[in-house]
Write a structure and sequence with these properties.
mainly alpha; Serine Threonine Protein Phosphatase 5, Tetratricopeptide repeat; globular; Ankyrin_rpt-contain_sf
């Protein structure tokens, strides 16, 4: 039963980020203070992390809070199996791009501000995804940046974020 409860909490966390609800996300994390550092790293069913979503959907308040409280998140990659050299060990499947949150910064209104936050927390702007592209490449190829959506947690459209807490 504990695993099912944890999976439910992770799903609720992702739903809160998808909808831009910072206070709800904070409350959910505060309910498990001893497990916070692990839960915050949990990915959704598509292998996407909370910080990846916050950057992609340009949720600056959530980005700032996550980076401030959990700077270790900046090096987390989306779902892909990597070998010890940082290379993809399997064929590329859509949604398994090996990207860090930094790769998604071109989607932000003010990418430099989010990039600065990420770099100050230890993000490496030169990190390559499975296509051997860094975030700089995606500045001119935004159409190639698509965040995979999970079956259980569908993000709101970027243009209709609604009210945020």
């Amino acid at each position: 039963m504990r695993i099912r409860g944890m999976q439910s909490r992770i799903s609720l966390l992702h739903d809160a980020v998808n909808s831009g609800r910072l206070k709800e996300m904070q409350m959910l994390l505060d309910e498990e203070p001893d497990k916070k550092k692990k839960i915050v790293l949990a990915k959704d069913d598509s292998g996407v992390g909370l910080l990846h979503k916050a950057v992609y959907y340009d949720l600056q308040d959530i980005c700032k809070w996550l980076i401030e409280k959990f700077p270790h998140m900046v090096s987390l990659r989306d779902a892909v199996e990597m070998d010890g050299n940082g290379l993809n060990t399997h064929c590329v499947v859509k949604g398994q791009e090996g990207r860090t949150a930094y790769h998604y910064t071109p989607m932000c209104k003010d990418p430099q501000a989010i990039q600065k936050l990420l770099k100050n927390a230890g993000a490496d702007p030169s990190t390559l995804d499975v296509h051997q592209h860094s975030a700089k490449y995606y500045t001119d190829h935004k159409q190639e940046l698509e965040l995979p959506s999970s079956q259980k947690s569908t993000p709101n459209k970027r243009t209709s974020m609604g009210a945020r807490d």
